[in-house]
Amino acid sequence: MLFLLSFFLSPSLPIWGAAMPQPSPSSVPGGNDLSSLGQGFYVCLRKKSFPPPQAWKSFGELQQISKGSLGPGSSDILKAIKSFDPSPSRNLNTDQFQTLILAMVLQESNGNGNAVNDGGMSYGLLQVQLSEKAKETEEPATCDPSGCTYDNYLKMLQQGVYGHSSTGNPIPPGIAYWLGQYSPGAALRGYNTGSVPDESDYQVATPISTESYVSDLGNRLGGLPPQQFPDPNWKLNHCGFKLAITG
Predict the structure, then answer these.
(1) Where are the alpha helices (DSSP H) in 31-149?
(2) What is the pTM of this model?
(3) What is the Cα 166 distance to its own chain's centre?
(4) Is 19 exposed, middle or buried (CB count within 10 Å of its CB: 0-12, 13-18, 19+)?
(5) Whole-angstrom Cα distance, residue 54 to residue 211?
(6) d(CA 207, CA 244)
(7) What is the DSSP letter of 173?
């Protein structure tokens, strides 16, 4: 979720599909075992543990792994993601940049363009946050209730990917900005929290952001299917990732 003036963040919850099965506690290896990613269970990634871009699934592979999870607008969402250029990011090629955006869409909204959370301040595919004051000068990217269009999805992604870097702008820096400053793991912490509190530990977050956010994205990029993700309480009990304060 993209951090903004309201300072309220919450874990992203699945929108589409049935309840997800929970892995057994014995299936979770040590917190830094990157070699276990994509093996059919959630890996608790702690400290600076995060898969390097060359170990990520490709865009096509992640698309296949998440097939059916993006809802009815999947073709337009994928088309919109494929239009993005990695030039503002740090050491990512085009496929890696687009794969990261797809993983973030799965994490933030599961492709529900009408998703609105955090008391009406977080919108769309990447859950860009706009406070009531911010909405006086910036129109949130939303969809007509009857359905989202390609243009709707594209604007949502533009707000979450590029955002703005100028002080006082109602939309904060997007993921491309953070990738220009940090490695991917730290950049994701910045996107979710609005800062990188500890570059040696991506689990460190504010109480109102999501401790498991970077670990979740590492698992998605490593190939864990959406239906095999544990719920926040499981991650609290077995990984030590605290739940975010949402209100």
Answers:
(1) 59-65, 74-81, 94-108
(2) 0.84
(3) 23
(4) exposed
(5) 24
(6) 6
(7) B
